[in-house]
């Protein structure tokens, strides 16, 4: 849980240090600010990532939408391939994050 809290603090510091966040927009959103939408945070991993999405979701504020996809026993290559196949990530923008926690099974 301590590392999850550190991650949250780093993420909040990153957002506060963004230069002109309201200037970045997605073509599909027109003039709507990219930062007015929730930030997507996806945790993709092997068994080392179990419940991390749950902990982050409970620690982060309402500006975040947290997803978790865990494949027990999967090597890094399998997890990254599964991420690439997922349609959800095609809509991710610069403000969104994908975190891979894997490699234990390689």
From TrEMBL:
Ranges of biased composition (kind: Polar residues): 17-30
Chain segments carrying region Disordered: 17-36
Protein's name in the database: Uncharacterized protein
Originating species: Graphocephala atropunctata
